[in-house]
Amino acid sequence: MIGYIEGKLLKKEDERIIILANQIGYEVLLPAIVMDTLKTKLEGEEISLYIYYHQTERQPKPVLIGFNLEIEKEFFQHFISVEDIGPLKAVKALNIPVSEIAKAIELKDVANLKRLKGIGTRTAQKIIATLKGKVDKFALITKDEPKEIQAIEDISIKVFNVLVSQLGHKGNDAKRMIAEAVKRNRSISTFEELFEEVYRSTKTS
Q: Which CATH number is 71-140's, of 3.90.1150.10, 1.10.150.20, 3.40.50.1100, 2.40.50.140?
């Protein structure tokens, strides 16, 4: 099963793209919220997506659905658990940020859920009945650029492991040092930059 694809953008259409990875072109459906983040991407540029792989007896042809963040994919899996919402309908429906959808569900805001493409009052009520109390964490997703969020999280984990396992810092201290470093320097984009920023503060304190 395919869970993640990284490769070159070969072709971009209204609701789908083709990614060239290891000389294989994968056709991937994208919700509007994901497609919007690829507006500035040109053919030939590197991209990466988390993949929801859909195949059933009724749908024998595999369908790949792409997301920028793993947490978006997780929300999607909750969303398609609602009666009458299959993966293909869900792809078309997700035209506003996941955080806004999650907030609307928790607040029982039918009017806001009806902003979703193809979702009427009855289906909005089913969404609330099925998911209320299960999707509150998704309301915390920020509006920052998804790839930047993912990158800084990956870098932070690597620096944390070095601080704790190799340099002997306590876990809570390491987390605080990293958080303060990122807050001081928002332009950090590599392991080396974050590590240097962390230790610059220890030398001056």
A: 1.10.150.20
> What number of other Cβ atoms are within 10 A of residue 29's Cβ?
20
Structure-block tokens of residue 14: 């209204």
Lowest mean pLDDT among 2-11, 87-96, 142-151: 142-151
The helix/strand/coil state of 49 is strand
Q: Is 5 helix (H, G, I), strand (E, B) or coil?
A: strand
Residue type, 185: N
Q: What is the pLDDT of residues 79-95, one digit of tens each?
A: 999 999 999 999 999 99
Question: Which residue, chain included where needed, has tokens 């944390």?
Answer: 160
Architecture of domain 4-67: Beta Barrel (2.40)
- State the burial class of residue 110 (Cβ atoms within 10 Å of its Cβ: 0-12, 13-18, 19+): middle
Please give the Cα distance from 152 to 117 (Å, whole number).
33
Q: Which two tokens stand for residue 202?
A: 């220890």
Q: How far is CA 156 from CA 6, 62, 172, 173, 183, in A?
A: 21, 35, 13, 13, 12
**Rounded-to-integer distance, Cα 28 and Cα 19, Å:** 8
Residue from 141, 128, 66 nearest 119 by CA: 128
Residue 2: count other Cβ atoms within 10 Å of its Cβ: 12
- The mean of the pLDDT values for the chain is 88
Q: Which amino acid is at 194?
A: L
User: How far apart are the C-alpha atoms of 135 and 162, rounded to whole Å?
Assistant: 33
